[in-house]
Design a protein that fits this description.
This protein is elongated. The two termini are about 45 Å apart. The protein folds into two domains: about 140 residues, PAS domain (Beta-Lactamase); about 220 residues, Heat Shock Protein 90 (2-Layer Sandwich). The chain is built from ten helices and twelve strands. Helix 5 runs antiparallel to helix 6. By secondary structure, the chain is of the alpha+beta class. About 40% of the residues lie in helices and about 25% in strands. The chain has a five-stranded antiparallel β-sheet with strand order 2-1-5-4-3. A five-stranded mixed β-sheet has the order 7-9-10-12-11.
Length: about 375
Amino acid sequence: MDTQFLPAERSEPHAVEHQSELLSREPNLDRFFSVVTDVILILNEDRQIVYHNRNLLELPGIDQRISGLRPGEAFNCIHAFESAGGCGTTKFCRECGAARAIQSSQKGVPAKEECRIVLKDGGGALDLQIKSEQFRVNDQEFTIVTATDISHEKRRRILERLFFHDIMNTAVGVRGLAELLSMATEEQQSELREMIHNGSEKLIEEIRSQVMLTAAENDELAINVSRINTKQILQEIYMLYRLHEVSKEKNIVIDPAACNIEIKSDKAILSRVVANMLKNALEASRPGDNVTMGCEIEDQMVGFWVHNPSAMPSKVKMQVFQRSFSTKGEGRGLGTYSMKLLSEKYLQGSVFFSSSEAHGTTFNACYPLEI
């Protein structure tokens, strides 16, 4: 059977049943693992579950028929059902911390990895810390896997780092403008004062944005619907970023054909999403590149888009909307994840992208004309 990562072959059902019975006869196994707060799995050589503690059944969406499944199938990982080989056999599994940890331990090297599992059927996601190690029972090799839920801890850590990173960037920009003001001609001072005012407003907006993200993550974000002009949204975001540090030696262009209509949505949330698309595009661009943004109407939906000429590496494409992934490094941002979270959960919209060497990268955010 074809695979793009780990072997697809599985043990026969009778062999799985025999291994489960073998472990069930181990003295005190259930008693010991019942007092552990983590999820415990024991896998055979084909990565199939032959034992689990009761904690597994307390996770969301877990089916009671666990024996013989692989971890991703038991957890309802969205990628575990994309190929006939199942969990561990898709190209996405190459980036899965659980799959890598199991592979390492089966080669004799105990491993600890972090893993984010996107649940199928819109069931959300799990952030897990995975530890795995081999052990032997009656001359048979097994892999013991512990899974610890670190979702809350990881979310808090990333939000804190993001907050300080963005606030520092904005504050440095305002300071730089203030230094220019002292050296500017009288003619230049008026424009610089306006830029300093805009930078100060951005600093306040960054703080509000972090409050927004925290509320969104905690299901506490309130929606404030108002009439919004689409062209004005683009122009305001252009003014916000045209002198931003990430725009240095790059050109921001508003598509002349961008639609100019009124929609009903939440301006703060919508602005956050489109601004994130622009900021990510600028960070991915090279000096001299044009980054273009626009919007269009199609099938009673308004679509905002941002294009840059650079192509995404395949590894980035596979993880781009994951909460724990950032193109800027560990704990450096939630840009693409927040775009998807805010759009789908609060604006009744969707976010998607296309990327190739020939056409560059375009992010799209589509919404109803009225929410």
